[in-house]
Amino acid sequence: MAPQQMARTEITRDIEDARAHGVEIDMRTATLMAFSPDCVKLLETDGRLRYMSHNGRCAMEIPDLGPVLGQEWWALWPERARALLKDAVELAAQGRQVNFVAECPTAAGTPACWDVTLTGIAAEGGGSVSEIVAVSASTDKPPSELVVY
């Protein structure tokens, strides 16, 4: 399959999958998510998982998105990392960009370490943060504290 056809297939799959789970994703968002090899997530400002990219589900070994949608994102992480994730979500909801590295096995139990960046996205027309984007990349870096930009 040609690269352009493959890209179109991935984008279409993300849009169809999102709609199947009651989430509207526009073409721009789906395109950004499909072209990132990382685990890209959209979170509500209270930390509930709104959507995860197809590549993210593959990286996290999550076969079906449905059961994790609406869960608090930190509930998918080990107990020792949850306070860090809650703080990161709170800061991103205030419009800050944050980064940390933490260990979290995949849904299948495969050990993994993730370099995670979060930032708030303002509602159309400006104003307060309406959602949060979180990007997690697999890494060999050691776990770190929260860094706020």
Offer a quick outline of the entry.
This protein has 149 residues and is α+β, with helices and mostly antiparallel strands.
Q: How would you summarize the topology of this molecule?
A:
Blueprint (H helix, E strand, L loop, with lengths): L2 H18 L6 H8 L4 E5 L5 E4 L1 H6 L19 H15 L3 E7 L9 E10 L6 E10 L8 E2 L1
Antiparallel strand pairs: 1-2, 1-5, 3-4, 3-6, 4-5
Helix pairs in contact: 1-2
Structural commentary:
The protein is built from four helices and six strands. By secondary structure, the chain is an alpha+beta fold. It has a six-stranded antiparallel sheet. A hairpin with a 5-residue loop joins strand 1 and strand 2 (49-52). The N and C termini lie far apart (41 Å). Mean pLDDT is 88; it is low at 1-6.
In whole angstroms, how far apart are the ends? 41 Å
Enumerate the spans where pLDDT stays under 50 for 5 or more consecutive residues: 1-6
In helices, the fraction of residues equals 25-40%
Count of alpha and pi helical runs: 4
Q: How would a textbook summarize the main sheet?
A: 6 strands, antiparallel
Strand content range? 25-35%
Mean pLDDT: 88
Structural class: alpha+beta
Principal-axis shape equals globular
What Rg do the Cα atoms give? Answer: 15 Å
How many beta strands in the DSSP annotation? 6
| Spatial strand sequence of the major β-sheet | 2-1-5-4-3-6
Write the element-wise H/E pattern from the N-terminal end onward.
Answer: HHEEHHEEEE
